[in-house]
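User: Hi! I have a protein structure encoded as tokens and I'd like to know what sequence might fold into it. I'm fairly new to this, so please keep things simple.
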């Protein structure tokens, strides 16, 4: 499974990277649905929530803690939204797990 996110992680496609750690990368969404719209993407290729394994628990926690850190850094700690889309017919446009962080603050 090679997605556009895999290519961004490999630096084959340019992107506006706002944060990175060993197991994930955070980029600005190119089609933002809010004033702030970031995508928190694991470097491990996982198609969706349905494809998570038991060993991905720490990775999933890291995604949420990255969201918390970014919200704090962006001074939006009192109003933001986090969500996953699951399944292509329910707005998951890229079949590589990613967590949306959105805020209009």
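Assistant: Happy to help. Inverse folding works backwards from shape to sequence: for each of the 105 positions I chose a residue that suits the local structure. Here it is:
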């Amino acid at each position: 499974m090679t997605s556009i996110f895999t290519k961004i992680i490999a630096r084959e496609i340019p992107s506006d990277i706002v944060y990175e750690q060993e197991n994930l990368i955070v980029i600005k969404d190119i089609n933002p649905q809010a004033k702030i719209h970031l995508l928190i993407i694991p470097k491990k290729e996982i198609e969706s929530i349905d494809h998570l394994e038991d060993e991905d628990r720490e990775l999933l926690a890291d995604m949420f803690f990255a969201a918390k850190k970014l919200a704090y850094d962006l001074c939006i700690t009192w109003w933001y939204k986090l969500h996953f889309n699951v399944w292509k017919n329910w707005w998951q446009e890229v079949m590589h797990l990613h967590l949306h962080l959105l805020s209009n603050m």
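A useful reference point when you look it over: The chain has a mean pLDDT of 90. Feel free to ask if any position seems puzzling.
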